[in-house]
Amino acid sequence: MKKVIFMACAVAFTAAVQAKTMDNAKLTINKNNIKVWTYQNAQNPVFQYKAETSFDVPIEKAVSLILDVENAVNWVPYMGSVKVLSRDDQKGEFSLYMVLDFPFPLKDRDLVVQGKMRKDAQGIISIQNKAVKKGYPINPNYVRLTDYEGDWTFQRLGNQKVKVSTYGYANPEGSIPLSFVNMFVQQQPYQMLQKMKVQLGKSKTATAFPEILK
């Protein structure tokens, strides 16, 4: 079964970093029931982001969409391809190889991601991801990303309602103007959550959950 968690090019920081930077957050997008905040710190000029929305579907259906790797290229912006390298449902661990289709004339990016999925005592499901330097051969046609962290969280608001949050950060590497990168950081999560809503409307059933998320 080739289904696993991925972190769609929407890259994020951990909850600890989020807590430290929340006071400096700027609400950059607030429309269509989607909010996007951007953050900056003195160590890195590239924006980090938090984006959130809610969907009128069961939490299982929303999480299932993230579990469906084969469908990711249909709704995650700039996602060129995703390959499952490993998955351990008992431990809730996985690894992926992703190619990001950047617009011309920029060179496409690739990365190897290791992730962890878990469910806490309150029933909140989280998916945490981090790029690693090894795990897949270097392809000279791509720029390899190694400075990337991200996560998703899903909180049940009712039998037919779920709050979805995604946090992101990545160093895009290469010679890309900072203004372009930061504009991308603001727009990408908004577009992704919009497309996620469309995909949830198309999906009829939920993927079977890994045991660790039940």
UniProtKB/TrEMBL annotation:
Domain of life: Bacteria
Keywords, alphabetical: Signal
An annotated GO cellular component: cytoplasm
Signal peptide limits: 1-19
Gene Ontology MF terms in the entry: lipid binding
Pfam families: START (PF01852)
Protein name: START domain-containing protein
Domain annotation START: ranges: 49-205
